[in-house]
Amino acid sequence: MIKIVPSIAILGGKVVRTIKGDIDQVQVYDTNPLDLALEFENNGIKHLHLVDLDGAKARQIVNYNILEMLASYTQLEIDYTGGITRDDDIRTAFECGAKHVTAATVAVHEREKFLSWVITYGGNKVILAADALDGVVLTKGWRKNTGIDLVEHIKSYHERGVRFVKTTEIGRNGTLEGPNFDTYKKLRTEFPELQILASGGIRSIEDIEQLDALGVAGVIIGKSYYDGQIKLKDLQKFIGVAEQEA
């Protein structure tokens, strides 16, 4: 059963959502990160995707204090991402309570460093972020077009032992246009043993059900929850079973 992973994105201390991955184009939500995390936990959620948008801009971890607060006051398994580019960044993230760290830019521009993190911290704790626009990987806060094909990028790491991948369809992120099912189907066919976390465009319970049917390991939800299109009570059928299987 697919795992439900709500996302909290932080910019300037506020909870926001980006539109089509543009850090300079965000929707601000009037909610406290801790209150939000507690609401997720109180409704049976076990996992959280915490995005440090300030860190993505600064190219180093920034919102570690928020990570530490959420890790201290909840039992959520937090996957932290944004600005993880140095050894000090990933060390700080884990010291502040992250259970997983997701990295994208380093995996493209400093391959050996990323692989050293996988070796040091374990393949179950370091997740490859392979975020793409029209099948081409983007990095540096989704601002740099690398020209690298998404499938080939994942394949190169899969051959080096990486087993956990988060992939976002950037053009659909924050749009509620629906996920790119063809991409996830292709990845599941190409890499059947890969644990894939889907993100971008999720708009309904039906979308989650379809991703589950494709064998996607987890799904990140953001705007659909914040805008009320997906209710926490509607996720209970996924939450209970997924956590029993975990």
TrEMBL record:
Cellular component GO terms held in the UniProt record: cytoplasm
Q: Which UniProt keywords apply?
A: Amino-acid biosynthesis, Cytoplasm, Histidine biosynthesis, Isomerase
A single Gene Ontology MF term assigned here is: 1-(5-phosphoribosyl)-5-[(5-phosphoribosylamino)methylideneamino]imidazole-4-carboxamide isomerase activity
- Enzyme active site: D131 (proton donor)
Q: Where in the cell is it found?
A: Cytoplasm
Among the Pfam families in the record, one is His_biosynth
* The protein's Enzyme Commission number: 5.3.1.16
Q: Which GO terms describe its biological process?
A: L-histidine biosynthetic process; L-tryptophan biosynthetic process
Q: Sorted alphabetically, which CDD domains does this protein's record hold? A: HisA
Primary location class: cytoplasm
Enumerate the transmembrane spans. Answer: none
Gene3D superfamilies (UniProt xref):
Aldolase class I
> In which pathway is this protein known to take part?
Amino-acid biosynthesis; L-histidine biosynthesis; L-histidine from 5-phospho-alpha-D-ribose 1-diphosphate: step 4/9
Enzymatic reactions: 1-(5-phospho-beta-D-ribosyl)-5-[(5-phospho-beta-D-ribosylamino)methylideneamino]imidazole-4-carboxamide = 5-[(5-phospho-1-deoxy-D-ribulos-1-ylimino)methylamino]-1-(5-phospho-beta-D-ribosyl)imidazole-4-carboxamide
EC class (word): isomerase
The domain of life is Bacteria
Annotated family? Belongs to the HisA/HisF family.
Q: What is this protein called?
A: 1-(5-phosphoribosyl)-5-[(5-phosphoribosylamino)methylideneamino] imidazole-4-carboxamide isomerase
Organism of this sequence: Microscilla marina ATCC 23134
Q: What is the lineage of its organism?
A: Bacteria, Pseudomonadati, Bacteroidota, Cytophagia, Cytophagales
